[in-house]
Write a structure and sequence with these properties.
13% of the residues lie in helices and 25% in strands. With 318 residues, the protein is α+β, with helices and mostly antiparallel strands. The chain has 4 domains: 1-79, Receptor L-domain (24 nucleotide stem-loop, u2 snrnp hairpin iv. U2 a', Chain A, Alpha-Beta Horseshoe); 82-193, Immunoglobulin-like, CATH 2.60.40; 198-236, no CATH class; 254-298, no CATH class. Strands 3, 6, 7, 10, 11 and 12 form a 6-stranded mixed β-sheet that branches. The protein has a 4-stranded antiparallel β-sheet with strand order 4-5-9-8, with no helix packed on it. The chain has a two-stranded parallel sheet with strand order 1-2. This is Putative insulin-like peptide receptor.
Amino acid sequence: MTRVALARSYSLVILDNPHLRALWNWTGRGRRLAVERGKMFVHSNPRLCFHHIEALVNATNMTGLSETDVSSTYNGDKVPCKVTPLEARVTPHLYGTLLVEVATSARLPPDAVYYVNYKKAEKNVSLYEGDGPCSDQGWSTTEVGPGNGTALARRRDLIIVNLEPFTRYAVYVKAYSLAASGKGAQSDVLYAVTRPYHPTEPVGLEWVSRNRSTVALEWRPPRRPNGRVAHYLVSLQLLPDTPRIPPDLNFCRPETREYIDGKMLALAEAEKVSLARRKTPAAKEDVRDEGAKGGPEGGEESCQAPPTPPAAPAGTRA
């Protein structure tokens, strides 16, 4: 409320209040407002609808006011003051979407524009809570195009996309007439929860083996469950034993090569490799013999075997 002396004839001035929506509640107050001298000046209040100003004029019993004193054009010109109820429904659609169905109002002209406003809401919200010059209510707005519905069905549909799964949203619909800025329609605030989706992976996976036959697993829930996590699926895959080669193993001994060949064959059988083998068992024996001989023709570096122990059977070659 602003009080300034524009002229000696004005004793009550309401001027240039961008977010003023209502005045006092005149019903049941038990007292009255009296302006003994002067008139009122009410201008440039874009969200103050004219019927609130008329209630103020009637409460003061003030007469003889003109358009210059109280403007019916520049008060309430930024909001739909003559609002009619608008029927709308919101339901979950596909993943991350909501379907909004709006029944077009017969009281609005055909050129009326419909807007869907939505935001996340864990609890019920008010349209005007925190409304101020520096407030951010967080409402996102999407226009419902005229091609989204049919004139015969008198309904317009809109799918809100890019929403978070399994999240509660508040939605309401507003309609404005391009021909008359004072006419509009608005629905109640509706609520809907988007459909759940696949959760992200669990985090902090740790394991410990307390004995040779058990493994204990621990993890934390996923950062984005995207719904209610009812159970976890644990997959176990048995991996074949990979042979470990001692660092001091002598590859020039035939029994060492036989040991390595046996391990490789067992590994291939465990993995059930279906690829065609490039070497036959006979070829493996040939390669082993060539490797034992060494030399550049065998394709390997020559190695010198340690001296044969005296107890070794005769005919054993290094």
